[in-house]
Amino acid sequence: MAIYKVAVATGDVAEAGTNNTISITLVGSQGESRRTTISSLFLPGQEKRLSVDCRQDLGPIVLIRLHKWRIFLEDAWFCKDVRVTAPDGTLYRFPCYQWLEGVTTVEVREGSGKKLVDDELQILKEHRRGELAARQEAYRWKNYAQGWPRCLNVGSIHELDSNIQFSCIRATNFTGFLILQGASHFLSGFLLRCTSWDSLDEMRTIFSRTQGRDIGGCLVYPPLTL
Predict the structure, then answer these.
(1) Is the pTM of this model over 0.85?
(2) Are residues 173 and 202 in the same domain?
(3) In this protein, which residues make up the domain named Lipoxygenase (predicted)?
(4) Residues annotated within a binding site
(5) Which residue among 135, 207, 219, 223 has the highest number of C-beta atoms inside a 10 angstrom radius?
(6) What domain range is 27 assigned to?
(7) CB 171 within 8 A of CB 178
(8) Domain identity same for 104 and 13
(9) Would you list which residues are annotated within the binding site for Ca(2+)?
């Protein structure tokens, strides 16, 4: 009998928790464990600990499988990382940092940063090929117009996987930055200007007025230096 200690951490971001059921499978070089349920309630920033009992030693743990399924309502879950401690005390880390949506199974490799030539096990080679195919499907390109740079082949950002989209925090920060820049341009006389600049010296004068300007408690600097 081999007992593995597992710690599963939920990300500390908005709505990262879930009430869907999450289970885990450990995959080693000498076999894999049975599918073990972790919990059906995860809170943001919370870490769940459990023991996975195996009939024999699995060898070095090379990847894990996280299984998510629901009984009633869909509730996405953001997994931060998983740590597995083997019976001999060896610690394996599996950084995840992604959303799991719907009824799905996600495979996460052990975070040791190995290259393609380091994949000796067939299961790791298959995982790498599957990951590459998934990325090629997610990042398909198209020509928006002749002479323009290529862009993603989607109609809107809502068609993208949630792990590709901006998070709520990043989107809020980006919007706030645009508001501050707009206020800076307005106060410097640049935003609503209807006539051409008379000289570069005039532009320098306009932008120098915003040096250290305090807007709503935030220090705003000129967006352009000449």
Answers:
(1) no
(2) yes
(3) 114-226
(4) 17, 75-76
(5) 207
(6) 2-112
(7) no
(8) yes
(9) 17, 75-76
